[in-house]
C-alpha cells in the first residue's frame, strides 16, 4: 500500500527524513487561520487509497497540535485515505493521568478519546506511563510505544567515561535502569517530593559512589528543569566531576536552561522528539523501523 508522510508543522525535519528513508511521498499540510481565528487546513497531494502518516510532535503548542491532528486525520479520511497513522514523537497530556484535585480534568483521557475517534493507529516514543501501565488503558486503537533508551545508551557509551546513571525520581528509574544495563554501569534513583509544579526536593534511595564520576541524569521529560536541577545539586554535593542531563523530551520551558546551568549541569542533551538546540540524539531510525511494516 502506498504511504504518504505528512506533518502539521512540528516535526518537519524528522518527517522529511523518514519519508526519504522509506522512499515514501512527503507532502506537508498547509495549516493557517482565517481572520476570525478558525483553522484552515489543506492537503496538497491526493490521500485517496493511501496510508497517511501524520508525524507531529505535540510540542510546542500541545492544544493546537491535537486540534491540527484531528482535523488532518478527518480530512484525510474524507479524501479517501485507507488508514491514518499518527506518529507523535512526543505525546502531550500524559502526565495528567489522574484527578490530582477535585474537579480537575484527566486530560490524558480526553486527548486519547479525541485521537481514538479520528485516527486508526498511534505510534509514540517513551510516553509518560506512570499510573497507566500501558497505552491500552486509554487508547482503543492499536497503540505502539517505542523507546529511545537504546539510542540514549549508545550516546552515553560514545561520549562519556567513568559515568554513573542517575534517575531523578522513581518514575525515571525505568529509563535509568535500562540505560545503565545497556551501558554496563551503575544506576541510582532519587526520591522526589513534589510540592508544586515548580518546587521539588530529592533524596538518594539506592546510594552509590558518585565522587569523581560523571553523573548522567536521565529522565523522560525535562520541562521546567526543577527535577533535574535538584538531582544535579545533589550530585554536585556528592562530589560528581561533571553532571550531564539527558532527556527524551526536552520541553525546556520557562527559564529551564538557566536553572540547569545554575544547578551545575555541564551539558543538556535531548532527543529530537521535540526540536530544540539541545538535540543530540536522532530518533528517526525508530520511526523508520516502525513504519516500514506499513509500506
Ligand atoms: C515526571 O514524573 C517526569 O518524569 C519528569 O521528571 C518531570 O515531568 C520533569 O518536570 P520538570 O522539569 O518540570 O521538573
Please describe what this structure looks like.
Helix 1 (about 10-20) packs across helix 8 (about 285-290). The model has no long low-confidence stretch (mean pLDDT about 95). The strands form three sheets. Strands 11-10-9-12-13-14-15 form a seven-stranded mixed beta sheet. Strands 2-1-5-6-7-8 form a six-stranded parallel beta sheet, with helices on both faces. The radius of gyration is 20 Å and the shape is globular. It has eight helices and 15 strands. It has helices at about 10-20, 60-80, 105-120, 150-160, 175-185, 225-235, 255-260, 285-290, and strands at about 5, 25, 30-35, 40, 50-55, 85-90, 120-125, 145, 165, 185-195, 200-205, 215-220, 240-250, 265-270, 280. Helices cover about 30% and strands about 25% of the residues. It has about 300 residues and is α/β, with parallel strands linked by helices. Strand 3 (about 30-35) and strand 4 form a beta hairpin. It binds ribose-5-phosphate (R5P). Ribose-5-phosphate binds near residues 169 and 226.
Amino acid at each position: 500500500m502506498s504511504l504518504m508522510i505528512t506533518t502539521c508543522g512540528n516535526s518537519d525535519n524528522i518527517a522529511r527524513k523518514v519519508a526519504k528513508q522509506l522512499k515514501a511521498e512527503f507532502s506537508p499540510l498547509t495549516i493557517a487561520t482565517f481572520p476570525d481565528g478558525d483553522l484552515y487546513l489543506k492537503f496538497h497531494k491526493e490521500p485517496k487509497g493511501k496510508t497517511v502518516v501524520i508525524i507531529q510532535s505535540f510540542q510546542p503548542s500541545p492544544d493546537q497540535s491535537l486540534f491540527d491532528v484531528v482535523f488532518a486525520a478527518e480530512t484525510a479520511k474524507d479524501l479517501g485515505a485507507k488508514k491514518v497513522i499518527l506518529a507523535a514523537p512526543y505525546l502531550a497530556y500524559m502526565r495528567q493521568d489522574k484527578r490530582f484535585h477535585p474537579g480537575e480534568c484527566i486530560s490524558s483521557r480526553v486527548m486519547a478519546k479525541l485521537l481514538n475517534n479520528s485516527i486508526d493507529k498511534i505510534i509514540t516514543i517513551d510516553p509518560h506511563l506512570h499510573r497507566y501501565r500501558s497505552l491500552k488503558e486509554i487508547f482503543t486503537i492499536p497503540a505502539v510505544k517505542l523507546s529511545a533508551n537504546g539510542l540514549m545508551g549508545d550516546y552515553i557509551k560514545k561520549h562519556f567515561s567513568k559515568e554513573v546513571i542517575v534517575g531523578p525520581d522513581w518514575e525515571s528509574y525505568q529509563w535509568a535502569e535500562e540505560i545503565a544495563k545497556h551501558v554496563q554501569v551503575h544506576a541510582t534513583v532519587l526520591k522526589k517530593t513534589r510540592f508544586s509544579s515548580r518546587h521539588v526536593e530529592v533524596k538518594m534511595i539506592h546510594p552509590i559512589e558518585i565522587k569523581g564520576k560523571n553523573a548522567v541524569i536521565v529522565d523522560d521529560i525535562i520541562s521546567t528543569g526543577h527535577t533535574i536541577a535538584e538531582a544535579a545539586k545533589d550530585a554536585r554535593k556528592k562530589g560528581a566531576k561533571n553532571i550531564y542531563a539527558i532527556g527524551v523530551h526536552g520541553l525546556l520551558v520557562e527559564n529551564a536552561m538557566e536553572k540547569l546551568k545554575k544547578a551545575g549541569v555541564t551539558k543538556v542533551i535531548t532527543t529530537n522528539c521535540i526540536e530544540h538546540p539541545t538535540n543530540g540524539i536522532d530518533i528517526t531510525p525508530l520511526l523508520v523501523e516502525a513504519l516500514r511494516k506499513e509500506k
